Amino acid sequence: MKLTAFSLLLTAASATRPHFSSIATAGRSTRFLPSVAFVNSSSLSNIVSVGVSSTTTRTPSSSSSSTNTRRNMSSSTDKQTLISCPTLSLRDGTSHPAIGFGTYKVGFIPASASAAVEGTTTDEQLRTAAECVRDALDVGYRFLECAEFYGNEAEVGKAIKESGVKREELFLCSKVWTTTIEKGDAAVRERLEKTLADLGTDYIDLYLIHWPVPGKHVDAYKTLEQLQKEGKIRNIGVSNYAVEDFKELLDAGITSKPAVNQIEINPFLYRKNTINYFESEGVVMQSYRSLRDGKAMDHPTLKKIGESHGKSPAQVLGRWCVQHGFVYMPKSVKVERMKENAQVFDFELSEKEMEQLDGLTTPEAFAAFEALYRKCVNRDTSKDGTMDGVKMDITID
Description:
Layout: H1 5-8, E1 21-25, E2 28-32, E3 38-39, H2 43-58, H3 64-83, E4 87-89, E5 95-97, E6 101-102, H4 114-118, H5 129-139, E7 143-145, H6 153-163, E8 171-176, H7 178-183, H8 185-199, E9 204-209, H9 217-229, E10 233-239, H10 243-251, E11 260-264, H11 272-280, E12 284-288, H12 300-309, H13 313-324, E13 327-328, H14 335-342, H15 351-358, H16 363-376
Parallel strand pairs: 6-7, 7-8, 8-9, 9-10, 10-11, 11-12, 12-13
Antiparallel strand pairs: 1-2, 3-4, 4-5
Helix pairs in contact: 2-3, 5-6, 6-8, 12-13
């Protein structure tokens, strides 16, 4: 079903997401979509134990040393829960962590990013990417979301090396940028080698086409298929793809369907029809801007739901992602926020609360997405600023 920005301004966004399956865990259930299988069931007992220990840490104690001991125990438990977090099964059976650490604008602002264009300075620039990623690994994150465009993969690799975390314990994802996609097969291959060298590894767990560059993305995807056969990439996927971009891949005769589509997903941009289509095709959805760049933390619905669970608005947003079965990818340069963002496995949102959050997307949000899509598919290429080859009729909801 296609909806134009105009028609969406006249109709309300779709509401609930039905048909959850339940995984019973020590007298409680954690709900996920049936189209996404959660494996690594041993971690589910940890989810409950984190909730217990967190409550214990908040209990007043007459002894400060006892309080500190409990706090340290809680921190240790939180880290272990994050390390052994639930996973989603990709189409080849690979276990994909349900939560990861995003590295966009961490220690480096890309030249065409809005902050760079505006000339503003952010917290992300005040610490190096190596420092931030080292902290994230120490907190317990084991899935790192990277990209050529982010400009900091060498720093990420430095952090991995210094952390001492074994390669087999990590899940590394990267994306090839529009400029490289436009240049063709040799450039894509060269870029992958650069990414591997920067990250200090001889293979990448997941490699994505960053944007569906008109007239170029299909050939780039076919290059990824070959690199996967050569063993340098374990799984391949896409990012920012509309339903119509995916169908273009299928019509072009690709031999390996994308394992993942990484798009913006949060209650304020919940493209239910698009998500349902991709999940019906066996594609796992990665959510970027899961926390909406911190721009919705004062929203009354988030605050009210958070207060009822003793959770922050950020944790409500993260839990919404996890409970829907999306890969949740928060980012922060602050250690305490890294920890806070990860504490989403020790509570459950009610069906009513999920429905309230599902209904926060406005027609204006869909219209803004459509405009951004049209702008970005040619971004930084020789056709930047034009509508040359851009699909003008896509599924936006």
